[in-house]
Structure formats: C-alpha cells, structure tokens
Amino acid sequence: MTDFHQRLTWRYILGLGLAHRRELIVAHLIAVAAALVSVPVPLLMPLLVDEVLLGHPGFIVHSINTLFPASWHTPVLYIVVTLVFTLFLRLSFMLLSVWQSREFTLIAKDISYQLRSRLLAHLQTVSMAEYETLGSGAVSSYLVTDVNVIDDFVAVSLSRFVVAVLTLVGVTAVLLWMNWKLALLILLMNPFVIYLSVRMGKKVKVLKSRENSAFEVFQQALTETLDAVQQIRASNRERYFLDRLDQTARQVKIHASAFAWKSDAANRLSF
Asked: What topology is assigned to 1-178 in CATH?
C-alpha cells in the first residue's frame, strides 16, 4: 500500500524515472544516433566545394570514385551523390528526432500521471477542514499547474542530459586537439559561467513559484465565481466578481511574463 505521508522528493521522482530503464536506454541511444547523424550535414557542402570546384580531391571524391565506374567521374556525379546523401542524413535526423521525442515524452507523461495518481489518492486522507482552508482552486492548481512544471522539467532533463554531456566531452576533446591553450582558457571560464547560471536559476525558480501562486489565486477565484454564479447574478454583483477575476488574471500575466523572458535570458547565458 502506498505511503501517502511520504514526501514527494526528487529522489522519489528519480525512482519513477528509473522504473523505465529500458525505455531510457533506447531513447538515449536514439538521441545519440540523431546527434551523430546531424554532425556531417553542415560539413558536406563546404567539403564538396573544396574538393570539386577548387580541384582538391579528398575523402568525398575518392569515396564516390570507388562506388561508380571511371566513365561517370564528373562534377555532376559528385554533386548529385552528395546532395542525395545530405537529404538522406537530414531525413534520418528528422525521423530519429521525432522518435526520440516520442520516447522521452511517454516517459515524462507517465511520471506526471504517477504523481497525479498519488496526489488524488492522498486527497482521501485530507480532512475537510484542511480542504476548505486550501480551497478547490489551490488543489486543482497542485494537480494541474505544479505537476505540469515537473513534467516539463523532467522531459527536458531526460532528453538533453546525456547528449549534452557527450557533446561537452566531444567539444572539449576537439578543442584540446586543435589548441590546448585555448581549450584550457575556455574550460577555466566554465566554472564562472556555471556560477552565473546557478544564480540566475535560483531567481528564475522564485519567479516560477510566483507564477504558479498567481495561477492558484486565479483558479480559486474563478471556481468560487462559477460555483456561485446564480447567487452573484441574483444579487447584481456580477461586475464586482468579474473585476476581481480580471485583477487576478492581470497578476498571472505579470508573473508569467517576468518568468518567460528572464528564464530565456538565463538559458541563453548558460550557453
């Protein structure tokens, strides 16, 4: 039987994610394959220009020459084969990206379902006094808005973490190979960038909390107004309650706008 009094911690959410080990492994393999497929695409056309138009035969020309008879070895052949291969890589990347997104989305949505299911089960143990204190708007906000925030975070974290780590390792290796002094300078700057990102992240977390609180107040006011709409119209106080709803909606707009652009600024700073 589920322990309703156990806190919903990140360790608990991590456990829900690890319950999908097989799906996570498959999804990350797809993500890595998509990243590998996308790497050669921007390099093919510049290499083609260098090898064909500028007359410096290299890997592309030699590879195509081994596949086709000598009588076909013309610039048209090299251009057509490279174009077809580029389109194939682009199509493969698109299909793998969609497949990857589907796998990670299914995992994240199952985690959010498990959280909502547990919260719904927890409602059975909540006293009527506590329920009346919270209000139906706050309860619905916890079940919808707050869980959606976790859902979005889990989906992004699951889909980007491994690929981001592998990309960082690969870029670091290439930089060290090209110019180790420049690579060390960039690596030494990383802790400072990470510190700024963490500081910005803490402020963004507060903004998101304020946005969720504004949604909670709006949902509570909307629920109360709709539940008592007949009495409100009978007492001719419809305008008062609608004005109050408009004020709460304005607060939602203010806090949502602040979170949107500041979180985007924090994301750009982290890169």
From this structure: ABC transporter transmembrane region fold (1.20.1560)
